[in-house]
Amino acid sequence: WATFSFQQDYFTDENRVLKKDPQQDYHLEYAMENSTHTILAFSRELHTCDTNDKSITESTVRVIWAYHHKDMGEAGQNYHGSNRGTKSLRLLNPEKEEVLSASLPYFDLTNKDVPVPDKDTTYWCQMFKIPVQHEKHHVTKVEPLIQKGHENLVHHILLYQCSSNLNDSVLDYGHECYHPNMPDSFLTCETVIFAWAIGGEGFTYPPHVGLSIGTAADPQFVLMEVHYDNPSYTEGLIDNSGLRLIYTPVLRKYDAGVIEAGLWVSLFHNIPPGMPEFVSEGHCTLECLEEALGAERPAGIHVFAVLLHAHLAGRAIRMRHFHNGEEQKLLAYDDEFDFNFQEFQYLKEERTILPGDNLITECHYSTVDRIRMTWVRRVLM
């Protein structure tokens, strides 16, 4: 085990020089090495009271890794060369409970050869019909199906429930969203039933919750909105990305839904250039939640996961919750927001939102490197 005796706590200064930390806070829990892999499991306190350590919170952390094929010698670490990289993680995000059977049925909602324009931002809409189930089923997991090589092109995907009075003619073609010539049928699609964003993996519903399909009240026609991010104005891109919905006839106790809170697309919401920090607030008022929940859900709704969403200027997002005028614990937050890592936060304990509560979505932006006005789009789903 001599190989592992060199585990040490280091930190780096502003010049990226590694220095041994006089306060050693990392502890080896497990180690293994074979002909191909070296595995180290280690632990430390979330808050070490060491100025050289970063506190671990529920926010995104950027893990920096590097390695050399030789062990560290007495002279210190060996230069890693190109064996290095970074990865954004949310270390305190609870483990997802995978209780799904590999034999569960599924259906795919995918675009068919969509020509992505050579412009910075495109929203593409396509209507789909949910396969007829004849009786209630529950969707238990939704997976992104991102075309290989388009991982940075597809920024987010929204799924809207549309009017049930449509006919199959609306399935014939897609169109650019929010366009003067888009089909009128798109205007009937207002309720978001699922959202995915760049960097996220598949979303697994809790074991007691599922997205209902198959009843008269459930979505029969859905609109899939795909945001394409093409800042390099690449020409000739053809995309076939979408979503896979896995479902089961074994019903769960509760039906899932989506509540959107935040700042909607508006010409009146913009961020001045050259701002090191600019804060916007989206208010879901007590009157709004009273009207939305009072008659249909007087006992409130239970929140089990949150997806915080912003674009390149986003630096931090906080979801604040008020009950009877008193602020509760933050519903969700990310003080180290990463545009390329937008994943659902599973709450450790479900939170109840009651009629008459308040929700405030607090968004922090930085435009210090911009010379033009920034127009803000949807920031939380």
Automatic annotation (TrEMBL):
Keyword annotations of the record: Copper, Disulfide bond, Endoplasmic reticulum, Glycoprotein, Membrane, Metal-binding, Monooxygenase, Oxidoreductase, Signal, Transmembrane, Transmembrane helix
PROSITE patterns documented for this protein: DOMON
Domain DOMON, chain residue ranges per copy: 1-68
Membrane topology note: Single-pass type I membrane protein
InterPro entries, A to Z: Cu2_ascorb_mOase-like_C, Cu2_ascorb_mOase_N, Cu2_ascorb_mOase_N_sf, Cu2_monoox_C, DBH-like, DOH_DOMON, DOMON_domain, PHM/PNGase_F_dom_sf
GO biological process annotation, one example: norepinephrine biosynthetic process
GO molecular function: copper ion binding; dopamine beta-monooxygenase activity
Cofactors demanded by this protein: Cu(2+)
Entry GO terms, CC: endoplasmic reticulum membrane; extracellular space; secretory granule membrane
Stored SUPFAM superfamilies: PHM/PNGase F (SSF49742)
Entry's localization field: Endoplasmic reticulum membrane
Similarity remark: Belongs to the copper type II ascorbate-dependent monooxygenase family.
PANTHER family, per database record: DBH-LIKE MONOOXYGENASE PROTEIN 1, DOPAMINE BETA HYDROXYLASE RELATED
Protein name per the record: MOXD1 protein
Organism per entry: Circaetus pectoralis (black-chested snake-eagle)
